[in-house]
Amino acid sequence: MIMIDNRQGFGASLNVKGKDADYQEIRIELNDNKIYGESPISDCPDDGSFCKRTDKYGVIMSGAAMKGKVTHITGASSLPVQKIKGLANWGTVQKMHRNQFIGFDSVTSLGNRQAIFEMNVYQPDYLPMMEFFDSKFIDVKDGALAYLMDPIPGWASLTDCGNYPCTGPNNAFLTF
């Protein structure tokens, strides 16, 4: 695939079911893609009739959970699509082979954040390791590789992570 000027990056958010679903081995592969940063086409037309200022990312860190949307959605689905509805699957690994990341700056032309990789704000428990092979980074500026967020205070839940927010974002691991 070729992705250009994405608001949110592409990735996979899988629903895992069955016996021992929390440790089932899940392998996500995203191979042979070209992901471009912001295009020269403005998000604000010259006449000022519409302007959409958003952060922009190339790839959202993928994951799998024991409750989520089905892999192939057949009808209307509530947004956001990447929202996880249950505990993470701990056996998930994401592998990316022969991908090209082209033309990323750390800010958009309108001053918003831009990065190749972003975290899924609906994935507080666990972010699977991302492994990269034969990747090419072309015209990628300092500060544009990844946006690694802090855990959200609202993630604190007595039934999940206790009185402190789940720490999935503190455990992001990307290897090249």
Q: Estimate the global geometry from the Cα principal axes.
A: globular
Mean pLDDT across all amino acids: 82
Q: Could you list the spans in which at least 5 consecutive residues all have pLDDT below 50?
A: none
The string of secondary-structure elements, in order, is EEEEEEEEEEEEE
Work out the helicity level. under 10%
How far the N terminus sits from the C terminus, by CA atoms, comes to 21 Å
Number of domains: 1
Helix/strand-derived category reads: mainly beta
Number of strand segments? 13
Order of adjacent strands in the largest pleated sheet: 1-4-8-11
DSSP strand content? 25-35%
User: What's the Cα radius of gyration?
Assistant: 17 Å
How would a crystallographer describe the biggest sheet? 4 strands, parallel
Q: Number of helical segments? A: 0
Description of the structure:
The chain has one domain (1-176). It has 176 residues and is mainly beta. It contains no helices and 13 strands.
Fill in the keyword field for this structure:
single chain; 176 residues; mainly beta; four-stranded parallel beta sheet; 13 strands; 29% strand
